[in-house]
Amino acid sequence: MLRVLRLRRASSTALSYRGISALISSSSSRPTRMLLPVRWASLQTLRRNRSYSSSVEHRVATAVDGLTDANRENVVLLLKDRCNALYQNNEAYVPPTEALSLWLRDLQMLHRQYEPSQLVDEVTQAYESGVAIASKQRQFELAKELTLQMQQMGLRPTERIHQYLIRNVALKLISRPKHTSLEDLRELLNGVNDDAWDREIMSILEREERPLQLKTDKEFALHHRRLIAGVESQLDECEHLLGTHNAQHLKAQRSTALYNEALRVYADNGVKLSRMLQLMITRDVIVDVETYEALLRGARWNEIPATLTQLLNSKLVEQLLKSGCATASGHIHRLWINSMKAIVYSSTERFNSLSASVFKNDVDQLRKVYFYVDKQLSSAFSKFEYATTAQYDDVYTMRIKAAAACGLVAPVKKLIDEYMACAPLTAERAQPLLRKEPFLAALEIFPWSLVDVLMLSREFALARADSRDVAMSPRVVEMQLMYERVMRNLNEAQKAVDGIQTRIKSQDLALHEDELRRLQAQNSRACQIVDEESRIATTIERRLNTVRVLKANQFLIGEHLQRADETVEFILVKLNDAGFDVDNDLDVAIKLMEQFMKCARHLDKRLTQRQKHASLHMMHRVFKQVNLVSKAARSGGFDVEDTATRDKLVKFFEHAVCAAVRFWCQEETNALIRQQQRLLGMRHLTAREYDQLIFQRVTSLDVQGAYSLLQEMHFAGMKPSQEAIHRIALGLLHERNGSSKSASYSANRSGHEGVDKIQCENEAEEECSSKEALKEAADENSEVLEEADEEKSGHETMEIAIEATLDSELSELLNTSDRDAIEQELGLSDVLKLDGDDRTSSTANAAARQSLLLGSDAPVSIEDLISFLQDWYNLYNVKPFGKTVVPVLAQLLEANNYAELRRLLQILESMKGGLTPATHLWLEKRLKRGGKTLDDLRIVKK
Q1: Coil, strand, or helix at residue 153?
Q2: Which of 126, 267, 568, 590 could anchor a disulfide with 298, C-beta 3.0 to 4.6 Å?
Q3: How many C-beta atoms lie closer than 10 Å to residue 587's C-beta?
């Protein structure tokens, strides 16, 4: 018999959840039950299961009326076989409709052979296992029909079955198609005015391919409404079956397992804590430890300490400590894990968004939450010994991860020391049992060094700009010398004006009329020169202050990163003390490179917007880590030919390339690729690396280079991603139009979801502003011209000539030696180089190879672009995104090119899911404004 997990019940001590106001619960209608049609299997299926059915009938036929132990074992084996037949990877698997009829047939045979009351436990557990198997395989209707069949057999579904059905409500919603349906989109956008409608549909298009939690607020709210209605309906059904919906005395005796499962489902799907509390109040739930576990999982920010305080003020903690059993250990383990996860999620949701601002007050508030939660839980369970070593490791891993998510260096170091000091000992009690995961989690503190830089104020930078190291910086010194030279010219011109004025005033009556006019003309020219020199001096003074602030920020960034390096070194030393070979451990190298990549993806855009450029600092660390790994590989520290090791090295270089791309360092990106190819002997890159390089080329307005990379993937037999097609298509649109309107439309609608599963981290908004980021990193002398232009007034010809001379000097000073000067000042001129890399020859070879790939078949016209989308679908079944197609449709509509519009629509509808619901709705709306419909463009009307 399949082993069925029993739900552990905690103490039923009543606990009122103080401080919670009563909330109004929303009523939900119960959906109509749909029975799956029962049909007999085909002849082929019957032949396949002939031997199986014969064995079942034999077991039943040989049974006797008395249920002996041997007969009971035969019944269990029969039910176990029936459960195994539900597994899709089993040779005896039968479809759901046939499985239901076979279950009913076998159980009816058993009931005819034995007294039904003798088989209640075995049959109930069999149904519970069947529902579990169906739920695991996402066969939600089968799970529901098994439950209904169980009731028809006169059996009551167990709590575990009800829990599966509650969980299936969320799983069924999540397993729906990724695209929001057309009917749902109409409902969401119903009643929205035209201007807001356009913004909403474009936002939906931008997020159409993203996971549910990253879609628009309206789509996520719709998911929550359906989830809550489904869970409430399932709870109503469970209460009706258990008879507790009206009887008050039964409510006090009922188990909280169903409601705890509902709360866990809410927490896992991002339902707010207030809605979770509403369910508890409406259903008169008596809380237990598992209730608090679910609430802590769904809490955020100040809700975390509020929920924890309620728990600590109860008697549940005391009961857990007195118990000391494995069950209590599991509860304490989950309380720690869920509390720390809530802090990590709070940090991620607020600070990891690419467009969100990071305010010091928010950071300080989250740190206060962490300190309170960690202190309270540590005090409550200070001397508790966990039942397993894994629980001990998990708790410390999450505590360290939460501290790192708040940017707290001291607590991270303290927890590592505490973890090593209090770790359980081996059986021989020779050394502590330590895992690598807590140390790897501690490395996640590194990106917060740049978050702290992000919060540096301009006033702080100005104060730092007065220091001697900033004043002695070569760029600042040269700007200061230029400013002093202009001031000398200004002073000389002012002295000339004063001298002329003195002569005119002292000899006004004695001067001849011609002499007076000559002096007045000289005075006018001298005043004009003074005015011009004064404006130039003001411009250079502003520029000098900007350079001083930039230089101060460079030093501050270096100091913050130096402290981060010291923290990383501390962690690595501790990891080495724990018995791990840090120098030859690729897991450590990958984790550290992942942090560098996160710095680039999540922070560089916001840093550059605030004139805090960290790319050179970070690339120095990337190159240093790559050199260490390359050296270890060449010295035999690990086997490059081993498949697992090779996969780790590929992942390591993927992170490194991504970091270089996101820091806008093209030369460094090429150097990393060359190093990877030398070390691993690779002729081609990975699909993710090609994606990153295509992103880099397109954002650098090198669309032909991006297209050549796509050709290289094709020649290597690699399937390009939808993102690669999307970027190149928008790049070609931008290149073709060359107008500011097209650039704004295309660039602002481009997106990047990322291939990291998690990462859920999302890259879409990075690409939306990639062009802006490139402009912010452009030549600094453009700011001089902008500042000078603001103050232009009169005498434009002479002023332009003078400012052109100044601009030439500034360009020579700031542009030709800018990067070299920064590298020399930061001591990076010799370290931004990979071991064994010949940049000159390698760059020439790469350029020659790329030039061979650049063919004449790159799309040029809008017709070519449509064929481009069709060709890659035909070659690799790569469907274009809705956000890729809409700009093309918009241009065709704007140009009244209905012939190509019909062609594109026909191509999209020929693809499976090519015309996404959001694209369909957008096109329908645009055509309606012009008095047309989609059927007007179709060959075959629908």
Answers
A1: coil
A2: 267
A3: 15
Distance CA 790, CA 804 (A): 15
Q: Which residues pair with 425 in a beta bridge?
A: 432
The pLDDT tens digits for 579-619 are 999 999 999 999 999 999 999 988 888 888 777 888 889 99
Number of domains the chain contains = 3
Q: How many residues does the chain have?
A: 942
Strands (DSSP E) contained in 692-775 are none
Sign of CA dihedral 687, 690, 696, 701: negative
Residue ending a domain, choose from 157, 186, 212: 157
Which one-letter amino acid corresponds to residue 32?
T
Please name the helix (run of DSSP H) or strand (run of DSSP E) that holds residue 809, with its range, or none.
helix 796-814
Rounded to an integer, what distance in angstroms lies between the CA atom of residue 337 and that of residue 292? 12
Q: Can you give the residue range of the structural domain that contains 924? A: 862-936
What pTM value is reported for the model?
0.81
CA distance 811 to 813: 5
* DSSP assignments along 114-131, one per residue: S-GGGGHHHHHHHHHHHH
pLDDT in tens, 699-747: 988 888 899 999 999 999 999 999 999 999 999 999 887 643 443 334 3
Q: Is residue 368 part of a domain?
A: no
Position 567 in a domain: yes
550 occurs within a structural domain: yes
Tell me which residue of 767, 689, 679 sits closest to 721, measured CA to CA. 689
Q: Is residue 689 part of a domain?
A: no
Amino acid of residue 65: D
| Tokens read off for 863 | 């017709």
By the 10 Å C-beta count (0-12 exposed, 13-18 middle, 19+ buried), 472 is classed as exposed
832-835: long-range contacts, CB 8 A cutoff, minimum separation 24:
832/616, 832/619, 832/620, 832/623, 832/668, 833/623, 833/671, 834/623, 834/626, 834/627, 834/630, 834/671, 834/672, 834/674, 834/675, 835/627, 835/630, 835/631
The β-bridge partners of 760 are 758
